[in-house]
Design brief:
By secondary structure, the protein is α/β, with parallel strands linked by helices. It has ten helices and ten strands. The strands form two sheets. A six-stranded mixed beta sheet has the order 6-7-8-3-9-10, sandwiched between helices.
C-alpha cells in the first residue's frame, strides 16, 4: 500500500533522513520506533506532503505521491494525525470534524460524521463545545476523528499517547486496534515502544535518520538491543 524508497530529507543543510526505505502492506499496523530526533515525525511529514523529500520515492496505492500537495494526498486516501494533535482550539468539536471532511461530498461527509460519533460517543456529547476546553484524551480522540472524516485507507499517527494518563493510553491503543479491524491500515510513530510493538505487525527501528533494524514486532520485543535502548532492559 505504502512504499518509501531511498528517501532523503533535509532541514536546510541538515541531512535529517538518510536514504530510508520501508513499506506498509494493506491491513497492517506498522510502527516506527526510535529516540527523539531519530527522524520519525519527519518521515510522516514527508509522506503526507508537509515536507518535500530531496530524493527518493513515496508510492501509495501504486502511484508516486512524493511531490503532491497535502490536500491531494488526503484525497487519495492517506490521512495524518500530527504530533501534538493540532486541532483548532477556538472552533467547536463539530467544526473541527467538518474541517476533516472537505474531500467528501455532502452525503459521504454526514456518513463519516455519524461513524466518528459512533466510535467516539464523547465527541457527540461535546460537539458544540470549544475544542480547546477538552481534556488531553478528548483532544486526541478529536484529532483522530478529524482524520477519519476523510475516510482514509491509511492512517498515520504521530505520538498518539503523548501526555496522556496510562488509562487513556490504553484507550487510545484500543482504538487503534479497532480501526485496523475496521479495515484501516496504520502507520504508527510512538515513543512508548513497548505499547507500539505490542499491537503492531512489524516495526522499523530508526537511529539518526536511518533504519537500523526491521522485523516482526514480536521479534523486536525480544531483541536484546531494542530491549536495552527502548524497552527498559
Amino acid at each position: 500500500m505504502l512504499k518509501v524508497g531511498k528517501m532523503d530529507v533535509y532541514y536546510g543543510n541538515i541531512h535529517a533522513i538518510k536514504g530510508i526505505s520501508f513499506e506498509v502492506a494493506q491491513g497492517e499496523i506498522v510502527t516506527l520506533i526510535g529516540a527523539n530526533g531519530a527522524g520519525k515525525s519527519t518521515i510522516l511529514k514527508s509522506v503526507s506532503g508537509l515536507m518535500r523529500p530531496k530524493a527518493g520515492s513515496v508510492g501509495f496505492l501504486g502511484a508516486e505521491i512524493g511531490q503532491l500537495p497535502p490536500h491531494e494526498i488526503v484525497k487519495r486516501g492517506l490521512a495524518h494525525v500530527p504530533e501534538g494533535r493540532r486541532i483548532f482550539l477556538r472552533m467547536t468539536v463539530r467544526e473541527n470534524l467538518e474541517m476533516g471532511s472537505y474531500t467528501q461530498p455532502g452525503p459521504a461527509a454526514q456518513e463519516s460524521l455519524d461513524n466518528v460519533y459512533s466510535r467516539f460517543p464523547r465527541l457527540r456529547e461535546r460537539q458544540r463545545q470549544q475544542a480547546g476546553t477538552l481534556s488531553g484524551g478528548e483532544q486526541q480522540m478529536l484529532a483522530i476523528g478529524r482524520a477519519l472524516m476523510s475516510s482514509p485507507k491509511l492512517l498515520m499517527l504521530d505520538e498518539p499517547s503523548m501526555g496522556l494518563a496510562p488509562l487513556l493510553v490504553d484507550q487510545i491503543f484500543g482504538i487503534i486496534v479497532e480501526l485496523r479491524r475496521a479495515g484501516v491500515t496504520i502507520l504508527l510513530v510512538e515513543q512508548n515502544a513497548r505499547m507500539a510493538l505490542s499491537i503492531a505487525d512489524r516495526g522499523y527501528v530508526l537511529e539518526t535518520g536511518r533504519v537500523v533494524k526491521s522485523s516482526a514486532a514480536s521479534e523486536l520485543l525480544q531483541d536484546d538491543d531494542v530491549r536495552r535502548a527502548y524497552l527498559g532492559g
